[in-house]
Amino acid sequence: MKPSVFFELVEIKAKTASVFPFLMGTLYSYYHWHSINLLELLLFFLAMFLFNMAVDINDNYWDYKNATGVESFRRETNVIGVNHLNIHMIGWIDFSFTLISAIIGLFIVYRTGLPLLYMGLFSYAVGFLYAGGPKPINRGPFGEFFAGFTMGFVIYLIAIYINVFNSPEAILDFKFYGDALLSSLLTFFAISNLLLANNIADEQEDKDLGRKTIVYYLGKGNSMFILKSLYILGFFALICSIIIGLLPKTMLIVLLITPIVYKNTKAFVKNPIKKKTFPMIIKNLFLITLTEVVTFFIGVLIHF
Question: Is the pTM of the predicted complex or chain greater than 0.85?
Answer without folding.
Answer: yes
